[in-house]
Design a protein that fits this description.
The structure is a homodimer of 250-residue chains. Chain A is an alpha+beta fold and 250 residues long. The first copy, chain A, folds into two domains: 4-171 and 234-244, NADH Oxidase, CATH 3.40.109.10; 179-219, no CATH class. Chain A has helices at 4-10, 25-36, 55-64, 69-72, 85-94, 99-102, 105-128, 143-149, 179-182, 192-213, 222-230, 238-244; strands at residues 17-18, 47-52, 76-83, 132-136, 156-165, 167-169, 183-185. In chain A, the strands form two sheets. The first copy, chain A, has a four-stranded antiparallel β-sheet with strand order 2-3-5-4, with helices on both faces. In chain A, strands 1-6 form a two-stranded antiparallel ribbon. Chain A is globular and about 60 Å long. At the A-B interface, helix 1, helix 2, strand 2, helix 5 and helix 6 of A face helix 1, helix 2, strand 2, helix 5 and helix 6 of B. Strand 2 (47-52) of chain A pairs parallel with strand 7 (183-185) of chain B. Chains A, B: Belongs to the flavin oxidoreductase frp family. Chains A, B: Keywords: Coiled coil, Flavoprotein, FMN, NADP, Oxidoreductase. Chains A, B: InterPro entries: Flavin_OxRdtase_Frp, Nitroreductase, Nitroreductase-like. Chains A, B: This is Nitroreductase.
């Protein structure tokens, strides 16, 4: 059952350190064509991609992410946006009132899903070409600034960047949650004891992973890491900002 | 640059009509492993997958989607869910207050993105194995019922199903928006005349596509189709329902 594509998918690891070598126009266009080939809800194609080529723009975006190196130096930087602006223009062109639709949580979800499907096609295609990729959610630290820099109109929301490039350093793969914890048959896992036991089992695996990587210095558990992170809510401006962009309002 | 994986991605078309032949346990597990190999925001792994095997369950889910055949008859039905329930349990296990984080729009977006990245890996892996796939957003017609059927807890939101199976009928590929309309360099397209011209160009392409497929009977434009659909807002219960699930609250 294993084939080249599945090998590529299973070999995924994040690359944050790229060589100083740009992608060609042909590579970029191919990656966008791959993005566009993804499924789209009711054919709405509710996303846009901004390719950032300007070094200064990359630097400014990197600052927003807390100076992530992959944003400043890469082969190409794709910013994936949920996009219902196009459909706003369409409403105007066709003389139809589409406002209630476009402002709904349903269509917000559709646009986030569409943009993400497209992004993952780009990511896999890039990896299949021997390139490395890194998703960068850190743009969401300050979307107001991102929108200003990229001249983003109403009803468009930048979600994340995908930095693509020639890998300089290749990271290890982090072990994932046990399959049985993520995948349930016929209904969501109902046995709380089993559920918690799986988390415990995974904690041990993650502790081993960190111990090996750091020569015993680090011994985080996954649940410890997650609880620590989630105890400090991040980006609470998002709810109002998304509404101000004209999305997720009702 | 073209390789097997890119060929597979570019060849995507939706399959709605499957043979009466189930996927094996090995195929299903491999597809879940592929899902899990996707990137995940800050390692949160904020999704779950429900595999539906029960024929009666499939039938009930199909009814919710308006009797879509691909939901009732397929090789396997994966329901992808945004999942922060796991992190709620983690907060409890670790004695940390994670409520504000988990209820935020930011983390709602993270969980939708994580689930969608995973789903697209499953979709591509399945297609690379010669299987067909169909995303089914129609589950969102009645998520309350879906949650009851699949015993979905608080802070979990089913987003869509991916029906996978052996194709009985293969559809044509629909042409996508012009690349220049979806992909902008350095900033969002600022010239409204160019923007609208691209939509017009695409309308002609779509009209040709439908005319050829239907022997001239159908002549929809894309903007016409979209405006017609969006003039009738769908699933307006979603905003409150998502909040009731404990997500996207502030």
């Amino acid at each position: 059952m294993i084939n080249e594509t599945i090998e590529c998918i299973l070999a995924h690891r994040t690359v944050r350190d790229f060589e100083d070598r740009l992608l060609s126009k042909e590579q970029i266009e191919l990656l966008v064509h791959c993005a566009q080939a993804a499924s789209t809800s009711s054919f709405v194609q509710a996303y846009s991609i901004i390719g950032v080529t300007d070094t200064d723009q990359k630097k400014k975006l990197s600052e927003i992410t807390g100076n992530q190196a992959s944003v400043a130096k890469n082969g190409h930087l794709f910013v994936f946006c949920a996009d219902l602006h196009r459909h706003d223009v369409i409403g105007e062109l066709e003389g139809k009132d589409v406002a209630v639709s476009l402002e709904s949580t349903e269509k917000f979800m559709v646009s986030v899903i569409d943009a993400t499907l497209a992004a993952q096609n780009t990511a896999i295609a890039a990896e299949s070409m021997g390139l490395g990729i890194c998703y960068v959610g850190g743009l969401r630290n300050d979307l107001k600034k991102v929108c200003e820099l990229l001249k983003i109109p109403d009803k468009v929301l930048p979600l994340f960047a995908v930095a693509v490039g020639y890998p300089a350093t290749i990271n290890e793969q982090k072990p994932r949650l046990p399959l049985e914890h993520v995948y349930h048959e016929d209904c969501y896992e109902q046995d709380q004891a089993v559920y918690k036991e799986q988390l415990q089992q995974y904690n041990e695996e993650i502790q081993d992973y960190y111990a090996k990587r750091t020569g015993g210095e680090r011994a985080d558990t996954w649940t410890g890491q997650m609880a620590k992170m989630l105890a400090h809510p991040q980006r609470l401006y998002m709810h109002d900002f998304v509404e101000k962009q004209g999305l997720n309002k009702h």
